[in-house]
Amino acid sequence: QVGVTAQKTMRLLPASGRKATQKVVVGDQDGVITCFGIKKGEAVPVFKTLPGKKIARLELGGALNTPQEKIFVATGSEVRGFTKRGKQFLSFETNLTESIKAMHISGADLFLCASYIYNHYCDCKDQHYYLSGDKINDVLCLPVDKVNSITPVLACQDRVLRVLQGSDLLYEVEVPGPPTVLALNNGNGGDSGEEIVYGTSDGKLGLIQITGSKPIPKWEIGNEKKRGGILCIDSFDILGDGVKELLVGRDDGVLEVYNFESADDPVLRYDHALSESITSIQGGCVGKDGYDEILASTYSGWLTGLTTEPVHREGGSGEELKLSQEMQSKISSLRNELEHLQMKVLQEREKYQQSSQSSTAVASVPAFSVNDKFTLNKDDASYSLILEVQTAIDNVLVQSDVPIDLLDVDKNSAVVSFSSCDSEPNSNFLLATYRCQANTTRLELKVRSIEGQYGTLQAYVTPRIQPKTCQVHQYQIKPLSLHQRSHSIDHDRPVNTLTLKGQFSFAEIHSWVVFCLPEVPEKTPAGESITFYFQNTFLGTQLESTYRKGEGCFKSDNISTISILKDVLSKEATKRKINLKISYDINEESVRHTLKLIHPKLEYQQLLAKKVHLIDALRELQVHEGNVDFLLPKYRSILEEADQLLEEYKRQPAHLERLYGMITDLFIDKFKFRGTNVKTKVPLLLEILDGCDQDGLIAFFETA
Prior knowledge:
By secondary structure, the protein is of the alpha+beta class. It is built from eleven helices and 42 strands. Residues 324-351 form a coiled coil.
């Protein structure tokens, strides 16, 4: 184990000379680079550097077409180079004002990215520069020896790969999720050298050929199993069939091996679950000559090897297990190490007790790092909050000042308890404590928010360390929290339009849009105006927002979206004492269109609720009669599917109330724009909803 590791910070050095086994080099957030080999199952250190700034990336380099055995690390805004023996030969302080987030090396070319800035250096001299429209997560360059030109590719948060030529954008490639990692197909870009594999934060994989003029998508794998986001990819022939497999590491600890049985799409062949996110993955020969391994590094710094070596265990039913000499010596050395560590802990604890009771005592708060991710899931319109701590979590307290639902997560083994809270004076709507089982370092929660109600969700994370310490992390629930950025929208739908005019700058209106909607880059876009498209993940309605200095135009087929934007934007402008001229154009047809979108969901949820209410009575009948053949087929099928129905109902506790709430808001908002208050008619609307009649509902909306 080393310190906490960032994404892409572990590599295998190429095998040298007669020795076929490879050395491992890893950089951690304490700034330490550790290089070691494995001999008889034990780690043998080669070198270890002194601590410093945290290492964000570690890459191997060297002259083109020679073994890539020089080690380069990015720390802060500096790049350092080390030989395979650990001698530093390069310290290059870049002119970047921010810390380096991503790095790629090809011969004498160095490609670096901070949050929004890309820089290309050749022999440490500045060559090209590009400012991206959204955050850059990874960078790659197509192999120069194959494509005969320098073609950098940036993976950007707005679901786009940006392909550059010099300092200019050549073209953009739309991908199905925010790309988090890029890798050359087969490690070399395939036969053409133009093939790039990407992984997204919502767990999708794909291959795209980046030609000189346009992208050619080859294949794409969705995330049907609802696994974590992809953090690292490598190509290596682990199955020994002469074709390189794709090795994938995810942020929920799942390690996957895909192979190409047919030449087309990869097929998942193996998977293995580790307990924390996998930050780097490599294929090679590490532990024993002749046996290939997959090596993974995890967030808290564990390095784990999965080997192809057969593990023989002798012994049968009555026999004692015969442990090899090697195994016995390993166990005894582990016992000694354990005793030594226990002694050390006791000594340090005594030392701490003495120092804390002395007159010059200073309270020391132990530092610990938390890796967190708060993202909107398109499939079920809920937010996932993933908290990962370098040591075991004791408990997490979740507090929210807006009404939200906590949803069930299958992978979550923590015990949750709710505390009653008073929503009136201190606007406290949720207080829940998750008590974790021993050795839990990763906790996943799911919440669903209500659009129009915005505020802050806070997580108080307490790990199992002494003295007790807690870190608070805050997450913004935005007014249009269930909207997700999309590449395009359907322009044929009936839309309502909201137009704002006033004495505001481009930066000011952009900051209001950032406040209202998720997935909008915080940095003001380049140029004079910008258009963003969004889709509501719960209902499937859409929003188009176009704005510039002094003017903003928002179009949506959902009148409630326009109503929320009108309220929030006018409130934000009032705060800054800016006078807004607001005009709106309401399309009556859009209300009918939105109701038609909601109705199938409403019908499904009402039917589910009815079936669930019948289960207990039907089960009682089954017990009394002993036989249910006399029941109608529809009731028999409810009994047969009872467990699945209950499971689904439990997973989405307040789904029906949410839909009722949205239809009620739609009703109130429709008449609000006419200047009529219809709140007294809401009980009548709820009665019609219980009847589940689409035509009756539309008629009520039109005649009320």
